[in-house]
Specification:
Two copies of one chain form a homodimer. By secondary structure, chain A is an alpha/beta fold. The first copy, chain A, has one domain: Aldolase class I (TIM Barrel). In chain A, 44% of the residues lie in helices and 17% in strands. Chain A is globular, with a radius of gyration of 17 Å. The relative contact order of chain A is 0.16.
């Protein structure tokens, strides 16, 4: 059975893309506050159809599905089917619980929803990571240094000179015996990205925060891919590009992928 | 509109109970690996029926519902209806995301599932707490110091002498203008509990880790309730008490509540 990280590397290689398309579709994002659930579903389908060959990965954020209740979870299953084989599918669920509880979440994410990987919140310690990485073919991207403004509130607290995000990165490197542990690091924190790459050279990185949040694409793609693989997440910058038409969405994704290819070839 | 914390205090007062019944029902916990989903649902209903007048609160942990996929979410709605008016209902979801994403989770937890409060993971900073406490009638219990073994991995990292869990407690005290912010602190960390009560004197505490995990009930109830209110969560110690019969379950809950009342009256 192929490990999660091998599968991700193969997809990057075959698609020559480092793009992760984030799926966070709301009526508000569509600029149509009164858009129906059906309109929202239609928009997501359009984004997937327009980008499938360009995406190394998709990252549906569970909040945007759960908001619709049970119908939203049914929609999530449809979205995962629509994406199908090829792109890696990451459930951005930020699950963070321990032992037996985390095992139930792993059952849900991998066996029920069929995600290839899930994002994990490490606040409760290494116990909260372990249950997601028991099976090599499924992966976990653990939050290390996030891209939002208040990220440093707790992530920069230190022990023996190591900020939380470095301790997380070191622990995850140590937990990677199944070749299926990754890290989340915001593109808005390039200095932290460099430090993390040093202590976790092999781990795949999922880098959000390019685009609307102002993160730097060149630094993210170059430093991210210096040793292990790194994929760059773009959500609104693709899903709500230009006039929101299939052409505008595809064009935005193509532009991101071309830029990434150029930086990787430099 | 009554604030979440007022509602919790009133329930504690009227029930003379500080007991939060955790609902984490699995076939494995029932000692019947082959138990059907129907058996699991039946067991949960029995636990609720046997404890409703004794519980200050219930805390369904979403992992144990989500594990069953969409049918599990339908079951969660049933459970919330079964509990009905009276006990406070806390969705143990440990949601941890920011801004617009956290808003979608709040919509799901409060407007769709109708929880009174939700547990929140603060790893991403204060941005990840704010969207859950905008409406006074709904509350958030933010993870400060958890009860599990690896809790100290990151929660004890320091900034200016403050470990993460104290920074979280201070920030939450500051965010409490709507009287609806609480903290989660494990019964297994009594020293940390004392420190947290000093910097967050008013906030309601949700204290897990009594029972199977070995936390001390007396310390938890006395220090927890020294200034603000504190409820003590018991999951397996009630749901899977004795021979798992309604009588054994009720007896376990009664014993916990009697002990709590004695400690409170000392």
């Amino acid at each position: 059975m192929k490990s999660f990280t091998s599968r991700l590397k193969e997809r990057i290689e075959s698609s020559q893309s480092w793009l992760c398309v984030g799926l966070d579709i709301t009526p508000e994002g569509m600029g149509q506050k009164d858009a129906s659930f059906g309109d929202v579903k239609q928009h997501a389908k359009m984004v997937i159809d327009a980008t499938k060959d360009l995406a190394a990965a998709y990252k549906p954020n569970l909040a945007f599905f759960e908001r619709w209740g049970i119908a939203g979870f049914e929609w999530l299953i449809e979205v995962i089917e629509q994406i199908g084989e090829g792109p890696v599918i990451i459930g951005d669920a930020k699950r963070g619980d321990i032992g037996n509880t985390a095992k139930q979440y792993a059952k849900s994410m991998f066996d029920y929803f069929h995600f290839d990987a899930v994002t994990v919140n490490p606040y409760m310690g290494v116990d909260s990571i372990a249950p997601f990485i028991e099976r090599a073919q499924y992966g976990a991207f653990v939050l290390a240094r996030t891209s939002n403004k208040s990220a440093a509130n707790y992530q920069n607290h230190e022990k023996l000179g190591n900020p939380v995000y470095i301790s997380v990165a070191k622990d995850c490197q140590g937990l990677n015996s199944n070749d299926n542990v990754g890290l989340v690091i915001g593109a808005t924190a390039p200095e932290e990205l460099k430090k993390i790459r040093k202590v976790a050279p092999d781990l795949p990185l999922l880098i959000p925060g390019v685009g609307t949040q102002g993160g730097d694409l060149e630094t993210s793609i170059k430093i991210g891919n210096y040793s292990g693989p790194a994929i760059i997440n773009v959500s609104r910058g693709i899903s709500f590009a230009g006039d929101h038409s299939p052409d505008a969405i595809r064009k935005a994704a193509e532009d991101y992928v071309s830029e990434m290819r150029e930086f990787m070839n430099e």
